[in-house]
UniProtKB/TrEMBL annotation:
Natural source organism: Cytospora mali
Name of protein: Uncharacterized protein
Segments forming domain DUF7614: 974-1106
Ranges for domain DUF7611: 528-682
Database matches in InterPro entries: DUF7611, DUF7612, DUF7613, DUF7614
Ranges where the record places region Disordered: 1-35, 130-376
Domain named DUF7613: residues: 820-968
Bias kind Polar residues: ranges: 307-316, 338-354
Length: 1120
């Protein structure tokens, strides 16, 4: 060392560390705090100059390169000396004034606050820990400040922080060569000779406005490209005084003290000022921070080959350029000091070590290498940044509370994710409730304010767990991020952004001043009882023990147990905070208490509602659903209204009791009751049968009452439709009989629709079915139906998947469908159809206007056998016309079906029907008049109360015979008109015969198997209107001739007399019609003579007789 003292190096070191070194001034910035505390304010009056007015634009053409550029050749003034210059001056040996004599300074008695670990082996510098602590505890700036005022505030806070952070270090060797810590600069100029030190400052403490603040310290790890726009204040053009970043000259005015480091620093700050001026001008035209970064890079350019550049590029590859990996920071943390420190609200460590919470990592990809930039709305990010900045002072309190229970670093990511979901749900629910409540008194207002502050804290817990704690834990592990945890993080951050934006828009963000922590619940972990694995599986919905169910029972996904909202696979209808108690038989007084969330959800692939119970620690993951194989069902639940609780029966004598608030209990019961009733409409009832089930392409419900909420008015896709036939079953002497009583149409929204809606309408036979064929938006077949059940009326439009499906549904509803076990036995054209009160009255109004087309007889397919026409539940007459159909079900008992043939009109057939309630009339709404539905409704109501007559007019007699055979089961062998029909009757006492003769009678011979009957219909015959009698092979027939009339005589025929019209109309109708399946018992045995005008008709009758006719030429052939 002695030899070195005489060398150049030794002399230089002596200048710095020897006796002749110049001591720093007592007024160095590092001593200002101590001097200010010990000496107090100065007696000298100092003037504080106001800050220069900020201009709207910068006039760069007239402005100098920076506002206070001075003459480089002029010597520096004491006020312009930088801290570096002042540190190189000799120490002033002026006597001190003890104006604070007797002042006592002592240490505090409080326990020291541990803010981090330091030392030579610590990876984080000690100064970084201090900066991080101050950045977390610093209050956020006001939200209403403008951009320019925010920048000035950040500058002041940075300057103050620099003065507070300055701690003199041991004097080290000053670098005289180019340093990697400095930014890029032009070629160095020759350093001038040292200048004499300036005179020492006066003893009195100068005013803060007159003392220049120290320039920002440059960290060796920081590059000029790491500075953001928020780090640089606004610089109005033409102001005589610069802002705090540019208040020192570019080149030191002391020519003797210029160094390369000072020149390099001055050049950097000059470039920063120029670039910021351009950025401010761009901000007037809505420019972004990205444009400022490009401008700054163009002005300065990167310094290739430097460690700082390689470090910055590595950080950029991790995600520094991604807007998702670097969310917006609050204004309070845009200071230069906060750039170096750990940002408590944005967590750069999390963004570098862990991928973005908004994207799922690809397979086999490390989370430390992947960043997926997802653009976000700046307004939403700003709102979230403001929220986190105003609640970040609680983060350390959260950590202390969490560490008091268990080490945070030992927690599993699933537990942290579940806890974050828990606190987010609890905070959002409390915030919404506090906003909805309207305080009436000051005490209520204080309670609402306290609950709102607690809600802010709970939301901050969720953010802290995911953005602060979870990245630190994942940074210590080599395993990639679980996709389930990442999905939960994406959902939480997305919901937090939306909620923050809503709070900002409605003015409900946390206050700018720090919330008092003593009145806030800072706990992170909810206390739960310790349970065994067997009990845990029971609380997971298992029906057996742990050994038998541990393979089959799995934990619920995080977002399924604690859903934040709707997802692609599930709908969430809300949630309530409940208390769950697990009790065992015999130990009801010692229940296990589990605070849980009860969520009402429904999977998009199922229709039933689920209740999901979930605790914070995952010990309770209990679902109540409809599948017995999956766990407890609604059949195991008992609703206790008096206790506002749900009781669920569990295996092995356990009972799970869910205690709710009374209001919550009513809502839960109402939702489940409505859901079960709505879904029950798609199930057949006791007296119903399912005839049609399908999923409609779309369904639209248009009620005439616009205020009804039974179903959405807009079209809804994928609705489930069910058509149910109402059946009436009765016991009779012939057995049990069934009758059609209409249809019930039920439509329920499908599983893919969140809001459950259901409609249920009856289509009874007493009202016509009004329909219309339509086409949907994509040309899909649609059906319009009008409904009117008294309480409501309107229309429904159902779009089907294809044309056959629509025709199937339509035919079932109007009763014209032909099932697989049915067959059409007759289909003939008709010319007319009408309904009248009896055979002598005019038809009911409305039927004569329809253009009739055909009539069909549908009955059960008896294969080779003739189907039954009596007690036939599937026999029906279907009459088609151009604008609708009539479906007449002929489900009659023996003796009820009666027919009559017209004497004058050979092609008319009338059927007498008793009061019936299974007649269906369908009308095309667009093809009939407005009065027609009312006329048909009256006709249907009449047929349901009184006997009625159906009149069919066919195009030919042959079609009539075919129809008659299919309806009655009797084949027509002969059909003609007799000139004379005579009945011989012997008197009671004397052997004298009296004949009843009727002219112009309609004669018809019908046969069913071995039974042959003669049907006779009279007109204007005072003894009766009709009669029928059977013909047997034992009867005697002979031909007769009388007055050019030829005919057949039946000797000693057995027959009933024609019935006379009674006093009531019903007897008269019965007398005009004959029954084929149950003829009257013969009460007479006399001769009957049938005469025709032509032999051809007589011969046709002879061919139908069951025995030979005497005197007939056809007797021999008949006998053969």
């Amino acid at each position: 060392m002695d030899a070195d003292a005489h060398s150049k190096r030794g002399r230089f070191m002596g200048k710095l560390f020897g006796r002749d070194r110049k001591l720093p001034s007592a007024n160095a910035p590092g001593n200002e705090d101590l001097n200010s505390f010990l000496r107090g304010p100065s007696d000298t009056l100092t003037a504080a100059h106001a800050a220069p007015q900020m201009l709207a634009k910068l006039d760069t053409s007239n402005a100098r390169r920076y506002p206070n550029a001075l003459d480089v050749n002029a010597p520096p003034s004491p006020a312009q000396l930088s801290p570096q210059d002042m540190a190189m001056r000799p120490r002033a040996h002026s006597p001190r004034l003890r104006n604070r004599k007797g002042l006592v300074v002592r240490f505090v008695d409080t326990f020291p606050d541990v803010i981090g670990e330091g030392g030579d082996e610590c990876s984080v510098p000690t100064v970084e820990i201090g900066k991080r602590k101050r950045a977390q505890s610093a209050p956020p700036p006001p939200a209403h400040m403008t951009k320019v005022s925010q920048l000035q505030e950040r500058e002041r806070s940075h300057s103050d922080a620099q003065q507070e952070e300055f701690v003199p270090k041991p004097i080290k060797r000053t670098a005289t060569s180019f340093s990697v810590a400095d930014g890029p600069s032009p070629a160095p100029a020759p350093a001038p000779a040292p200048a004499p030190a300036p005179a020492p400052a006066p003893r009195s403490s100068p005013s803060p406005d007159l003392v220049p603040p120290p320039p920002p310290r440059h960290n060796a790890r920081r590059d000029i490209h790491d500075i953001s726009v928020a780090d640089i204040p606004a610089v109005p053009a033409g102001t005589p005084k610069a802002s705090r970043f540019l208040d020192n000259p570019v080149v030191s005015t002391d020519e003797n003290r210029k160094s390369f480091i000072e020149i390099n620093q001055a050049k950097q700050r000059q470039a920063e000022g120029m670039a910021f001026a351009q950025a401010v001008r761009r901000s007037a035209s809505a420019s972004s921070e990205h444009e400022w970064e490009e401008t700054r890079q163009k002005l300065l350019g990167p310094m290739p080959g430097t460690p700082t550049e390689s470090r910055a590029s590595a950080a950029s590859s991790v995600g520094a350029d991604s807007p998702e990996s670097q969310p917006r920071k609050p204004a309070a943390e845009h200071s230069p000091a906060s750039v170096y420190s750990h940002n408590s609200t944005s967590s750069p460590a999390f963004s570098q070590r862990w991928p973005s919470m908004r994207e799922r990592p690809r397979l086999n990809e490390s989370p430390t290498r992947r960043v997926m930039p997802v653009p976000e709305t700046p307004t939403i990010d700003d709102a979230l940044s403001i929220f986190t900045a105003r609640t970040s002072h609680l983060f350390e309190l959260f950590r202390l509370q969490a560490e008091a229970v268990k080490p945070v670093l030992s927690c599993l990511p699933d537990d942290l994710a579940r806890a974050a979901l828990w606190w987010f749900l609890k905070g959002r629910m409390a915030l919404e409730m506090s906003i909805r409540e309207q305080p009436q008194t000051s005490q209520q207002k204080e309670q609402i304010e306290a609950s709102r502050q607690q809600a802010y804290a709970d939301l901050a817990k969720a953010y802290w767990l995911f953005e602060e704690v979870l990245p630190d834990i994942m940074g210590t592990r080599s395993s990639p991020v679980d996709a389930e945890v990442q999905d939960a993080g994406q959902a939480i951050m997305s919901q937090l952004r939306k909620l923050s934006s809503s709070m900002k828009r409605n003015g409900f963000l946390p206050p700018e001043e720090a919330m008092p922590s003593h009145a806030i619940d800072q706990s992170i972990w909810v206390e739960y009882p310790v349970i065994s694995q067997d009990i845990m599986f029971l609380l997971w919905g298992s029906r057996g023990g742990a050994l038998s169910q541990q393979r089959s029972v799995t934990a619920m996904p995080l977002l399924a147990a604690l859903p934040l909202g709707d997802t692609a696979e599930m709908f969430c209808f809300g949630r309530y905070f409940v208390d769950v108690f697990l009790m065992e038989q015999g130990a009801e007084n010692q229940p296990l208490h589990f605070p849980c969330f009860l969520s009402m959800t429904r999977c998009t692939k199922q229709s039933s509602l689920d209740f999901c119970l979930a605790s914070q620690n995952g010990s309770v993951q209990f679902r109540i659903q409809s599948n017995k194989a999956a766990g407890p069902t609604w059949e195991d639940v008992k609703w206790r209204a008096e206790k506002s609780a749900l009781e669920v029966r569990l295996p092995r004598g356990f009972v799970l009791v869910v205690k709710c608030r009374p209001h919550d209990f009513k809502v839960l019961w109402g939702m489940q009751d409505f859901s079960s009733k709505a879904l029950a409409t798609l199930q057949p009832r006791k007296d119903e049968e399912v005839v049609f089930r399908s999923a409609l392409r779309s369904f639209q419900y248009l009620d005439s009452n616009a205020q009804t909420a039974a179903f959405p008015r807009e079209p809804v896709r994928n609705c489930d439709v069910g058509l149910f036939e109402k059946i009436l079953k009765e016991s009779s002497p012939t057995g049990q009989r069934t009758y059609h009583r209409g249809f019930r149409l039920a439509v329920v929204t499908g599983p893919t629709t969140k809001m459950l809606s259901a409609v249920n309408h009856m289509y009874i036979p007493q009202s016509p079915v009004q329909f219309g064929f339509l086409r949907g938006e994509q040309s899909e077949p649609a059906l319009l139906l009008r409904f009117d059940d008294g309480n409501s009326n309107g229309r429904m439009v159902m779009a089907f998947n294809d044309e056959p499906e629509r025709l199937r549904f339509h035919s079932l509803l109007i009763g014209t469908a032909v099932e697989q076990d049915e067959k059409v036995y007759s289909e003939v054209p008709i010319m007319g159809y009408s309904i009248s009160q009896n055979a002598r009255f005019e038809p009911i109004k409305g039927f004569s206007q329809f253009p009739w087309s055909r009539v069909r007889i549908i009955n059960e397919d008896g294969e080779d056998e003739v189907p039954e026409t009596v007690l036939a539940e599937k026999l029906k007459i279907v009459v088609d016309f151009k604008c609708g159909t009539i479906s007449d079900r002929v489900n009659v008992a023996p003796g009820e079906l009666k027919i009559r043939l017209s004497v004058k009109d050979k092609a008319t057939l009338s059927i007498l029907r008793q009061p019936q309630r299974d007649l269906t009339i369908a009308l095309s709404e667009s093809q009939v008049s407005k009065q027609t539905p009312d006329d048909m409704r009256k006709a249907l109501q009449f047929t349901s109360r009184e006997p009625s007559v159906r009149n069919f007019t066919f195009t030919s007699q042959r079609n009539l015979h075919e129809f008659e055979e299919a309806l009655t089961g009797f084949k027509v062998l002969f059909d003609g008109t007799a000139a004379t029909f005579a009945i011989s009757r012997r008197r009671m006492v004397v052997p004298i015969y009296k004949k009843w003769e009727a002219t112009g009678s309609r004669i018809q011979v019908v046969q069913s198997e071995n039974i042959i009957q003669v049907l006779v219909f009279f007109e204007d015959f005072h003894h009766g209107e009709s009669m029928s009698f059977p013909l047997k092979p034992t009867d005697v027939f002979e031909t007769v001739t009388r007055n050019k009339l030829v005919g057949v005589k039946i000797d000693d025929a057995k027959f009933p007399l024609p019935r006379m019209p009674g006093d009531d109309d019903e007897s008269a109708d019965d007398g005009a019609f004959v029954c084929l399946d149950l003829p009257e018992i013969p009460g007479e045995h006399d001769d009957i003579t049938i005469l025709f005008e032509s032999e051809e008709e007589r011969d046709d009758l002879i061919r139908c007789l069951p025995a030979p006719v005497k005197g007939a030429r056809m007797s021999k052939s008949f006998a053969k």
